[in-house]
Amino acid sequence: LQKRKKKMASSALSRLSNLHNHLNPTDPLSKGLVKLSPEVSEALTRGHAIVALESTIISHGMPFPKNLETAKEVEAIVRENGAVAATIAILDGIPCVGLSTEELERLAKLGSKAQKTARRDIAHVVAMRANGATTVSATMFFASMVGIPVFVTGGIGGVHRHGEHTMDISSDLTELGKTPVAVISAGVKSILDIPRTLEYLETQGVCVAAYKTHEFPAFFTESSGCKVPCRVDSPDDYANMKLKLGSGVLIAVPIPKEHTASGSLIESAIQSALKEARDKNVVGNAETPFLLARVNELTGGMSLASILDIALVKNNALVGAKISVALAQLRQ
Ligand code: PSU
Ligand code: MN
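A: This is the predicted complex of the input protein with pseudouridine-5'-monophosphate.
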């Protein structure tokens, strides 16, 4: 047993040291350790439009089989709009960019048995040959490594409420500061601290843009009360403003008009839950689970919020695919 343990440890170590080289972005061999789907590999060679997609939303966002169904529908929207879909996850310790139907199904069935993998978790998941569902930070990291400049998700992580005391700030924000990928999302959920999230993005040097509006959206509603410094009115607008700054861009797409009524319902449930949390003095890491559970109860079992979650990811996929096509055309 001792021998086996030693062997396992040394193989984990060698995988870690491989990964270490691989995390060095100047290493041209880094692509060798990432598995590309044939479709993604061909699109990269030909300079075709590709949209990266995260996988925490599949593993931790919804139960099976709704998660698989949604993942397939989002990929289909990307394809219908002229881009190749590259869902990113770590399977048996191998970072995969672009999943086959079987791999997507495997991840969806694993659900939360797959480890939620942010940037800090990549090394461990790879070394342990484990299965990891990538968050925004880890997905951006791999997308950038293989050369995919556009990434679509639902909502990104941010500064938690009371983050100025707890320092609970999602690594999505620091990743945006250093990885040149455009992230298309519906903004940040108001269970987080949106003004401080925007302050932090400013500190990180992230260009924050809103799509066809001047206001940063609050995911379920089109307004957060915060203005953005940059407005993008078309996919070409974005394609033209891309500079080699070396940092990321956040493009926030407001909730489509047809969903704003149910969006407002959820938003008022969030506001009541926030008030309850204040009254009951629920703080620290107990706050987010409390809020999510309360919003669930107040909106009748999460059904409405999850329907909207899905609608927003799909809308973002549509915008992201168009941006990625505009960018690819500019490169041709
Ligand atoms: N916000 C959402 N939906 C999500 C997430 C955030 O509205 O699915 C997920 C994303 O994968 C995001 C991650 O990158 O949670 C952020 O987690 P944390 O706050 O632990 O950094
Ligand atoms: Mn956190």
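Confidence is low (pLDDT under 50) at residues 25-29. The longest strand covers residues 84-91.
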